[in-house]
Amino acid sequence: MAATGVNRLTRSVRFIRLILHITSGLLQSFALPYVSTVRQNRMACNWAQKFLRILKVKLCPGGVLPICGRQGVVFVANHISWLDIMVILAVYPVHFVAKAEIGTWPILGRLCRNAGTLFIEREKRGDTLRINQQISSILKDGRSVVIFPEGTTGDGNVLQHFHASLLQSAVTAETLLYPVAIRYRNRDGSRNSSVAYVSVTILQSLMQILAEPEIQVELIFREPIPGAGRNRRELARLAEKAIAQTLSLNVVRTVPETLSDLPAERM
After folding, report:
1. Does residue 215 come out as left (phi exceeding 0), alpha (psi in the -120 to 50 range) or beta?
2. Contacts of 129 (CB under 8 A, 6+ apart)
3. Could you tell me if residue 61 is inside a domain?
4. 57 by DSSP, 3-state: which?
5. Alpha-carbon gap, residue 155 to 193, rounded angstroms
6. In the chain, is it the N or the C terminus that has fewer CB atoms within a 10 Å radius of its CB?
7. Could you report the per-residue pLDDT of 129-165, keeping only the tens digit for each?
8. Which residue segment(s) compose the domain that 135 sits in?
């Protein structure tokens, strides 16, 4: 975290601007079904970019982004904060897979639902099949999806083991999978810890971010991995390795391999 935060007045002004912006986004989201896909994408990216500007988050993208085409792609990213969603959306139009809890958040939950976020109930084993089917349909429709295969947020010091279950969609759709590395820094280049959404409420997390004078975020797109001819566990390990190497992080496996992590031919 930065050594010196902003004063209370600045935090209050940012907070008010953010609430107004979120409310505006909620109203705009009701119009999304009635405008073209190109217009939807532009609206979403512009809204996310302004969201980051209000929070004084400076985006530093790297690598080569795919061009929107007839078939969508799957982005796989490490997960540090709820802010990751805004960071990715600011540079590329995507759908997100998020835990069902987010859909219950006031205002933001409704905004996410209107924007086409896919909510998964991780406690329900059968929900993985439903989400994979939805993702495959989205990909074949030319739209792209972001998956956070760690399944939870971390502090950014290590990379959690990637779960393979939701990557079946990339295999089924025979599309490309892009590993995306996310890293938050302070102005002086040191790691920023205030962004990490760990052991805090969403409001506490927001207050921590509002107190920062500036946050820099690196968003690094790695070379794509073809989903065709591979199984989901292989995709998970390749993406995990690419992101770990990019961020120079160790991979932590806190739970044993589960059936959902195994390739289909071993089930």
Report:
1. beta
2. none
3. yes
4. strand
5. 7
6. C
7. 889 999 999 998 889 999 999 988 999 999 999 999 9
8. 8-266
> Is 2 among the domain residues?
no
Q: What is the pLDDT of residue 20?
A: 96
Strand pairing category for 251-252 and 159-160? parallel
The rounded distance, in Å, linking the Cα atoms of 108 and 122 is 20
**DSSP letter assigned to residue 98:** E
Partners of residue 181 on adjacent β-strands: 220
| Both tokens assigned to 237 | 């390990």
Count of the separate structural domains present in the chain = 1
DSSP 8-state assignment for residue 104: G
Phi-psi map region of 56: left, alpha, beta (phi>0 left; psi -120 to 50 alpha): left
Residue 244 within a domain: yes
Show the CA angle centred on residue 86, arms to residues 103 and 212, nearest 5°. Answer: 110
What are the helix and strand counts (H, E) for the chain? Answer: 8, 10
Look up residue 154 and give its two tokens: 């971390």
CA distance 249 to 134: 32
Query: pTM for this one?
Result: 0.87
182 contacts: CB under 8 Å, gap ≥ 6? 77, 78, 79, 80, 84, 87, 217, 218, 219, 220
Distance CA 165, CA 151 (A): 10
Q: Distance (Å, rounded) from C-alpha 235 to C-alpha 216?
A: 29
- The CA distance from 119 to 17, in Å, is 28
The amino acid occupying position 162 is F
Q: Is residue 1 part of a domain?
A: no
